[in-house]
Design a protein that fits this description.
5-stranded parallel beta sheet, 5 strands, globular, binds adenosine-5'-diphosphate, binds magnesium ion
Length: about 170
């Protein structure tokens, strides 16, 4: 039995893409807190926030984190998961935490290239690159403090997976 691996970082850093590949490489299960939230509520993040507000959304996000936590599982977390200190403590205590770090312009570019269906409106209506800069300035210290390991997320997904395996000393010979 091995501890869960939590992937943290801003939207677009590759938590879902890398998480799925990492879970396959390790023979682990994969789970995604945003996806879990949508399945259990049958609503999108935007809908939950619109009807219940951010505070309620954050509480539900914390519940999702706890619900998906299991051994031998790679867990992609929502970009704002680190905003609650209790979530950060929970992840550090229950598993290994990896920050996928990339600069805001790269993240914005990736999100702009996503298919229409996967796009979400920005929180403020400002250009996504600007908004992403502000989000990272606020959250980078939280991601850094929470993570056991930081990985450069600007490499190919395959390289990111390799680096995670190396940093966890799970690399195969
Ligand atoms: P997250 O789950 O962190 O929001 P995703 O895995 O959904 O991020 O990736 C966001 C977008 O960026 C997707 O279109 C994905 O194909 C692309 N992407 C993810 N990781 C990389 C990478 N290492 N290099 C280039 N593009 C990537
Ligand atoms: Mg994702």
């Amino acid at each position: 039995m091995s501890l869960p691996i939590y992937l943290i970082g801003a939207r677009g850093c590759g938590k879902t893409t890398v998480g799925q590949a990492l879970s396959q490489a390790l023979g682990y299960a994969f789970n995604d807190t945003d996806h879990h939230l949508q399945l259990t509520t049958q609503r999108s993040v935007a809908e939950i926030v619109a009807s219940e507000g951010w505070e309620s959304f954050r509480a539900r996000e914390t519940e999702s984190l706890r619900a998906v936590t299991a051994p031998n599982t790679v867990i992609a977390t929502g970009g704002g998961m680190v905003l609650a200190e209790a979530n950060c403590r929970f992840m550090r205590e229950h598993g290994q935490v990896i920050w996928l770090n990339a600069p805001s312009d790269v993240l914005a570019q990736r999100l702009e290239h996503q298919p229409e269906a996967a796009q979400r409106p920005t929180l403020t209506g400002r250009p996504i690159a600007e908004e992403m800069g502000d989000i990272l300035r606020e959250r980078a210290p939280l991601y850094r403090q929470t993570a056991h390991h930081e990985v450069n997320a600007m490499q190919s997904p395959e390289r990111v997976v390799e680096q995670i395996l190396q940093s966890l000393s799970l690399a195969r010979a």
